[in-house]
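Predict the assembly for these four chains.
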Amino acid sequence: MSGSAGVKVTVWNEYRHERNDEQVKAVYPEGIHEALRSGLSSFGYEVGTATLDEPEHGLTVEKLNDTDVLIWWGHQAHDEVDDAIVQRVQERVLQGMGLIVLHSGHYSKIYKKLMGTSCALKWREADEKERLWVVKPSHPIVAGLPEYIELEEEEMYGEHFDIPDPDDLVLVSWFEGGEVFRSGVTYSRGQGKIFYFRPGHETYPTYYREPVLRIIANAVKWAAEERGASPYYGNAKPLETIVAKK
Amino acid sequence: MSGSAGVKVTVWNEYRHERNDEQVKAVYPEGIHEALRSGLSSFGYEVGTATLDEPEHGLTVEKLNDTDVLIWWGHQAHDEVDDAIVQRVQERVLQGMGLIVLHSGHYSKIYKKLMGTSCALKWREADEKERLWVVKPSHPIVAGLPEYIELEEEEMYGEHFDIPDPDDLVLVSWFEGGEVFRSGVTYSRGQGKIFYFRPGHETYPTYYREPVLRIIANAVKWAAEERGASPYYGNAKPLETIVAKK
Amino acid sequence: MSGSAGVKVTVWNEYRHERNDEQVKAVYPEGIHEALRSGLSSFGYEVGTATLDEPEHGLTVEKLNDTDVLIWWGHQAHDEVDDAIVQRVQERVLQGMGLIVLHSGHYSKIYKKLMGTSCALKWREADEKERLWVVKPSHPIVAGLPEYIELEEEEMYGEHFDIPDPDDLVLVSWFEGGEVFRSGVTYSRGQGKIFYFRPGHETYPTYYREPVLRIIANAVKWAAEERGASPYYGNAKPLETIVAKK
Amino acid sequence: MSGSAGVKVTVWNEYRHERNDEQVKAVYPEGIHEALRSGLSSFGYEVGTATLDEPEHGLTVEKLNDTDVLIWWGHQAHDEVDDAIVQRVQERVLQGMGLIVLHSGHYSKIYKKLMGTSCALKWREADEKERLWVVKPSHPIVAGLPEYIELEEEEMYGEHFDIPDPDDLVLVSWFEGGEVFRSGVTYSRGQGKIFYFRPGHETYPTYYREPVLRIIANAVKWAAEERGASPYYGNAKPLETIVAKK
C-alpha cells in the first residue's frame, strides 16, 4: 500500500490559472497544490506546498534540502521560473530528491533540463475520454490499481512525445480521437528518481480522483525509497597491488 | 532499510556439494540454504527452505503459493530438477512471486526458461579478488551499500554473459584476472520480479558476508513489493460507444 | 532505405487457414507466406518459404543455416510444431539468425520460448480501425514511414501483453474499441535480433499494404546487420600478469 | 561492414593540447581531429573537421546542416564553448544528426545538456591496461570486432559514471587498478542517435588503433541510418468519427 511515515513531499504549483480563470477556479478554488496536498496527506505523507510567486518560487535551499519528493505542476508561466532555481532543483534531484512531473509540466524548464530533449507532443482540448492502461503490472507505482483507469474527460496528449526512452514504461493512454501516449514513465538521474504522469488538465477535477491520487502517492513512495551511497567522483586511487607493481 | 514484516521467503538449495565435498562442508556445514535462512531471518523475514532431494524438490503447490520470494542456488544437478516443477515455478513467477537466482543458478532450468537464452558465461576458479561496483545507485537493491563491495576470493564469471538486456543493471563486477561481469541484474516477467546476483561460490564463505546478505535482503524487499492488478487475458469487450455504433 | 542484396529470408507459415477457410482463401489464395515472399522480394531480398506440413516443417538444419532472417506466422496449430524444431530455431537465433514474429505468432512455441513469459493478451474480432503510432522515430525499422499508419480493419490486440520489457518500443497501436498495444517491439537474444510486429489477421489484406511490408522489410535489414564476434563460453585464462603472480 | 558512401562526418576537436603540450604534440602532431579524419576516411566516409578557435567554433548553421554525424573531442576548454552553439548542436541532434562523444567529451556542455546529469566519473592517469569487453554482441557498433579489445596504456575512467541508463550498453571496460566503466553506451534523443565511447586520452596513440577506429566507424554508420518521419508537434485534429460525434 501507498503511504509511508516520515516522507516529506513538497507540491510546487505555478498557481496562475486558478486565480485568473473562472473555470479553473471553480474546479480548484484553493489551487491545484492544495488539492494535491490534501489528497496526498491522506496517504500519510507530510506534505507542504510552494508556488511560483513566492520568493525563490518557494524553493529555498532549506526547503529543498528538507524535501524527499518534489511534485511539479506548471503551464503558462514556465519561462518565469528562474534559471538559478531550476539548476538548484536539478542538483537536488541528482543528489537523490525524487521528482514527479505532472501534465503540462512536461514543458517545464526542470523537466526539459533533466531529459535533454524538447519534450514536445501533440495536444487537443476536446473533452475526450482517456483510458490509462497498465503495461507493467509488476511496478510498485500501480500497486493496488486495476488494469486501467478511465477519465471521462481530459485534454488529449499524443505521440510522438519527444522524451528519452524511459527506464520503465508503466502506463499508456488511449484517447477517443485516435491517439496514444506514454502517460506514466520513470527515469533515474544521478541518485534521483523521476516520474512523469500525464493527467491533470486544469479544467477537469482529475486530481480529486482516487486512482489518480493513488498513482501519485505510489510514485512518492517509490521515489523516496532508500538508495545506495553517494558515489565519489574525481581522481581515484588504484588497488594496492597495482601501486606496489609500479 | 531492508526487512519487512510478513514477507515469506523460501530458500531453495541443491544441497549436494555440502554433503559430498569436505571443503564445502567445512564452509557450509548445514548447507548454503541454512546460511541464507539464518542471514535473511535477521532482516525480519519469515524464511523457510527447500532442497532438491525432498519430495517435489520441496516445492509443492502449497509451498509456492505461500512463498512471496523464492531464492535459488543450484550447480551440479540442474538436470535432476523435474521439468514439471520448473514449469510450476515459472507459472508462480508470472503470477507475481519474486525470484532471486544466485551464482551458478545462472545455468538452472528455471533461469534459462525465464530468460530464453543460453545463460552461458566464462568462468575460472583461481581465488581471485572481486569488486562489485554499483552502477545504478538510485536502486533500492543497493540501499545502505557503499559504492562497491570487495570479496577477497571468489570464482570468476566473465562476459559475455548470454542474458537478455536487463530492466536494470545494478552491479558490475571487476575481477583480478582481466574480466568484467554484469553481476546484479533485474527483470520483470509477467507479474513477477527477478534478480540475478553473481557471488556465492560454494568454497568461499560469501553468504556470511554482511554486504552480500544485505543485497539479497534488499532484493527480497524489492521483489515482494505490492503490484498492480492481475491483468485479464482473452476475448475482450469494446467501449460501449463502439458497440452502439455497429 | 530497406532492401539489401544478399540477405536471405525464409517466411514460415502454418498455412492452414488459407486451405480450410474460404474467407481466408479469398484474401490469400496462395497462402500468407506467398504474399510475404512476393512483397519482400520487391525490396531486393532473396526470399524462400517453409510451411508446417513439410517434412521438419520445412526447417531443416541446412535451411536454417542458410537463413539470415526467419519470419514466423502461425495461429491454430502452434501445438503441432515439434519441440525439437523449436529448439533448433532457438539455437539458430542465439547464434545470430534474425527472427520476425507476426501477429498470432505471439503464441507460438518459439516466441514464448525466447521471451520466457506467457505472451498472453486481449483480443477481439470486430473489424476495428487500428492506428500504429511511431514512438521511436530514430529507429531504422520505421525508416521512410510516416508518423502513424492506419489500417481500416484489423483484429484488436490489447494490453496487458505479457512480454518482457523490450529493448526498443517502436510502435504502439490504438484501437477504436478503447485499447492500446505495444505493436512493434525489439529484443536481442544471444547474437540474434528479434522483432515482434502485431498486424496481420488472416481475414484482412494487411500483408499487401505497402507500409506494412516496408516495416517488415526494414526489420529484415535491421535483423541481418553484421554483429560482433561469437563470444567464447567456458573456462577462461587470466591475464598473464595474474598468472605470473600466483 | 563499416563504411557507407555519402555519409558526411564532421570531427570537432578542442585542439589545444596538441598545440600547448609537447607530449601530446608528439602523438598527434596535426591534432586529434586530423588523426580521426584520416582514420575514418579510410572507411569511405566524407570527413571534415572543425575546431574551437575557428569562428563559431567551426560549427556554422550551414556546416551542421551538412553534417550527418558529428564527433566531439574536448577536455580543458569545455567552458569556452559558446552556449548558443551548444544549443544549435542540440537542436540538430534532436532533428536527426548523429553525435559521437569521445573520452573527456563526457564533460562537454553538449553531452551534459543531452544527458541531463552531471556526467561525473572517477579517473586516474597511471598508464593502466584497459580491456573493453563486448556485452551486447548483436549490436552493429561492434560489427567485425573480437570479444574484447585491449589497450596497453590508457587513462582510467571508473564508475559510478553519472549518466542516464543507456538505450544499449555495448562495451564495459576493465582497468588494471580495480575499476569498471560503461565505455560504449547508446542513446536516442529526438530523431538523433548518440554514442559515447570512452577511450582516447590525448597522451596515447589510441585513435590510430584499428579496432578503436572501427568502433567509431561502425557508430557513424549506425548513427547515420535512415529513420522515421519527423513527428508533428502541437495542436492536433481528431479522427473524423469523433468530430462527427460532437
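The interface with chain D takes residues 1, 96, 129, 134, 136-140, 142-147, 167-168, 188, 190-193, 225-232, 239 of chain C (CB under 8 Å). DSSP finds eight helices and ten strands in chain C.
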